[in-house]
Design a protein that fits this description.
Rieske Iron-sulfur Protein, Naphthalene 1,2-dioxygenase Alpha Subunit, Chain A, domain 1, 10-stranded antiparallel sheet, 4-stranded antiparallel sheet, binds FE2/S2 (inorganic) cluster
């Protein structure tokens, strides 16, 4: 496959979204190598707690080991004949072991095989209980950054901090917004939203600032109309605070600015976001100032990245405390999971704000997300049918500014897309061994 022929500096071939071969190679060279977000340590607080998810197409289980206290990420498959061991999304292992539902082999939280029924049948048949192949294999690399667990299916590569680079400031700010210095996942399972489209449409849409005023026009107009009908005596409408900015002008999004980083990471905003004018609750402000002092609080709350992409596996909104996780299923199917976080030490109205945002913007029943999915499906169909051959990304091409490792541009530049394809090509054409 001629990967390089699929991507030009300002356009990509339709096959990047439709080819099964391209998708398979993405799973091997991007999802099989990058650090991928797996979960948060608050999801496995007690010994034996686990959650299940996937890394690319590989099913995994993240578990708190009762013996060592460590958080392990194991491939969720039995070492006997390969059955998936844990089906539940979340739980706690009984008696400290996983038990395969097929023939009852059991595994410790570090993945090693503990027992198999009627062991005499395995005598003198070349079976070694200590052979890791008969266990649940550990994912080669697992690291934590401020409570967020990332893992990589590749044995070799940069460490997590190096991989994240500047984008880790987004995680820092999300945690710093907690007066108690920690965040915690809310609920056992995030919103799951099936997108009948390739995973890249979601990551590309994140910083496509030319779409909100068009794709979300109906939604934001309805909110504005509703507000106009309300009497002046009516107090603030929190739902409007969430929805109305989606109808922001081109100038508004241009001013926000875009910053592309190495490895496909990126963010919009910095000082200005559609959320920078959100009401800051007085009781929250007080708890922050008590914890951090006035100056530091001001610094934390004026850090306003609009949306951050940790390529390829998640997007983070630090000022709303939400993470969306990308789970590719096939070349034309993707699950997006949205997780909300509580700020330790903050009053309950901050959590209500986070949940409101998630319900109105990110959930499958939201007022915003389905507008986007509708657009992804339209491109997916055109690309699959051959109605379009090349997909354009030339807006403000050549006008970006290199600033050290950063590439910056006006907020409505298609650099947001081009930056991802720079990383995509680097991953996809790198033939080096990682195992
Ligand atoms: Fe798991 Fe047989 S497949 S015990």
């Amino acid at each position: 496959m001629q990967i390089r022929s699929l991507v030009e500096p300002a356009r990509v071939r339709r096959e990047v979204y439709t080819s099964e071969d391209v998708f398979a190679l993405e799973m091997e060279r991007i999802w099989g190598r990058a650090w991928l977000y797996v979960g948060h340590e608050s999801q496995v607080k007690s010994p034996g707690d686990y959650i299940t998810t996937t890394m690319g197409l590989t099913p995994v289980v993240m578990v708190r080991d009762a013996r060592s206290g460590a958080i392990n990420v194991l491939v969720n498959r039995c070492g006997h004949r390969g059955a998936m061991v844990c089906e539940a999304r979340t739980g706690s292992i009984d008696k400290g072991v996983f038990r395969c539902p097929y023939h009852g082999w059991t595994f410790r939280a570090d993945g090693s095989l503990r027992s198999q029924p009627s062991p005499a049948g395995y005598k003198d048949v070349g079976f070694d209980k200590n052979n890791p192949a008969f266990g649940m294999p550990g994912v080669p690399r697992v690291e934590k950054y401020r409570g967020f667990i990332f893992a990589s299916l590749a044995r070799v590569g940069p460490d997590l901090k190096t991989f994240l680079g500047e984008i880790r400031e987004t995680i820092d700010n999300m945690v710093d917004r907690a007066p108690g210095g920690e965040v915690e996942v809310t609920g056992k399972v995030g919103h799951r939203f099936r997108h009948p489209a390739n995973w890249k449409f979601f990551t590309e849409n994140l910083h496509d600032a030319m779409h909100p005023m068009v794709a979300h026009a109906g939604t934001s107009a309805a909110v504005r109309q509703y507000l106009e009908q309300l009497s002046q005596a009516h107090g603030p409408v929190p739902e409007a605070e969430v929805i109305a900015p989606f109808g922001g002008s081109y100038d508004f999004f241009d001013d926000m600015g875009f910053v592309g980083l190495p490895r496909g990471h990126a963010y919009m905003g910095g000082k200005k976001s559609i959320f920078s004018h959100y009401e800051v609750y007085p009781d929250y402000l007080k708890s922050m100032e008590e914890a951090h002092g006035k100056e530091r609080t001001k610094e934390i709350l004026s850090f306003n990245r609009h949306n951050s992409l940790i390529y390829p596996s998640c997007t983070v909104r630090d000022n709303i405390q939400s993470i969306r996780v990308v789970i590719p299923v096939s070349v034309n199917e993707t699950i997006i999971e949205s997780w909300t976080f509580a700020l330790k030490g903050a009053p309950p109205n901050m959590l209500e704000r986070t949940l409101r945002y998630s319900r109105l913007v990110n959930s499958p029943a939201s007022m915003v997300g389905p507008d986007d999915v509708n657009c992804y499906v339209r491109i997916q169909q055109s690309a699959a049918s051959g109605a379009i051959e090349w997909i354009d990304m030339r807006r403000h091409f050549g006008r970006e500014v290199q600033d050290g490792a950063r590439t910056t541009a006006t907020g409505t530049s298609d650099l947001a897309l081009r930056n991802q394809y720079t990383a995509w090509l680097e991953y996809m054409t790198d033939t080096g061994e990682r195992s």
